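quick q for whoever's on today - can somebody do inverse folding on this one?? i tried earlier but teh output was garbage lol. tokens:
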């Protein structure tokens, strides 16, 4: 499990390989990830946007921006957490992801970035 803490927002990530698929005649490797966002601060926060940088071993980079996560903009009270699962497809058997969540602090009304640390995506057969 990979973890980071930014301004009291703890992000924990677990990944898993889902299988190999052929899409549009190209082999793709499917990965799933589960992320828990825990509010260890004393303020109520809301996740309003996400920014991902997805890289694979073939040096392909995909940048993803969007509102919320999996169609939601969760409000997270102090001491509570929000967990969701999603996934991505890579053209290589391993790669990585990282990025940040744009959060708003309800006490200050200011936005900040909660850093999503780099986490690896790898197929079991690509490990040494």
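ok took a stab at it. sequence:
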């Amino acid at each position: 499990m990979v973890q980071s803490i930014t301004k009291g927002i703890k992000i924990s990530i677990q990944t898993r390989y889902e299988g190999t698929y052929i899409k549009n005649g190209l082999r793709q490797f499917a990965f799933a990830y589960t992320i828990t966002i825990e509010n260890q601060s004393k303020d109520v926060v809301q996740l309003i946007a996400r920014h991902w940088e997805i890289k694979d071993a073939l040096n392909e980079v995909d940048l993803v921006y969007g509102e919320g996560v999996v169609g939601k903009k969760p409000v997270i009270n102090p001491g509570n957490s929000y967990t969701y699962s999603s996934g991505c497809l890579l053209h290589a058997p391993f790669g990585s992801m990282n990025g940040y969540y744009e959060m708003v602090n309800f006490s200050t009304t200011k936005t900040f970035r909660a850093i999503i640390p780099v986490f690896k995506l790898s197929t079991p057969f690509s490990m040494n």
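fwiw The radius of gyration is 16 Å. also The beta strands are 2-6, 9-23, 26-39, 45-56, 61-67, 75-76, 81-90, 94-105, 111-122. so keep that in mind when u check it
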